[in-house]
Amino acid sequence: MLGPVASPVSFLGPKRYNEKILDLIEELPPIDAVLITHDHYDHLDYPSIQKLKSKAAHFFVPLGVGAHLIRWGVEKVRITELNWWEEIQFQGLTFALTPSKHFSGKGIFNRNSTLWGGWVILGKQTRFFTSGDGGYDAHFKEIGEEYGPFDIALIEGGQYDRRWSWAHMFPEQSVQANVDVKGKTMMLIHWGAFTLARHSWTDPIERALKEAESKNVHLIAPKIGETILLTESPASPPTSWWNL
Questions:
Q1: Domain count, the chain
Q2: Is 35 strand, coil or helix?
Q3: H helices of 41-170, where?
Q4: What is the pLDDT of residues 71-109, one digit of tens each?
Q5: 145 within a domain of the structure (yes/no)
Q6: What is the DSSP letter of 47?
Q7: 36 in a structural domain
């Protein structure tokens, strides 16, 4: 989702802090695969798919999400849908859809009509995990036992509130989730693009950094758009670029 607004209409809804990211798709090289975690507007965006569908060779999605892509002009043959714990081989990699504690839907009449989840990508040299959205629960330990350890784990840790704590983790829970999945390096995600909750923009990363230090977790926080190499060890604690 690289569009400027997390909403079904362009004139209403949460706006991205940097609204100029969508056009960067045109500058990207050909993409072998796009992996989507669920169909909420801040994760699956019509303008983004319109630009990506001529750039990406294949789309991997949870069950039911393919219908959105087909409706938006992506050929069915270029879409693979997976259930939780299902695996597929792709260009020498293993992709697996993992459980998460969340929900789905793009409208009031299709809530939970599609699946949601996280993704594991296993290569010969690198093991990668992204949690997708979701609350903290025992599934993280199950993922760690099945697929861990991971060279890097991207863990959701923003847009939280006690009223929906089942659907989004607090930063301290995010750090524990990384411990559970056996992430060697952790990156906090889902906090830098939109305001979807009442906490401040910097609260997620600052709380996560404090918790990571107490649990001896290697947490990285690259600048938005920055490239990192997993063969290198980024500084920990990271530079507080969000306060500059």
A1: 1
A2: strand
A3: 46-52, 66-71, 139-147
A4: 999 999 999 999 999 999 999 999 999 999 999 988 666
A5: yes
A6: H
A7: no
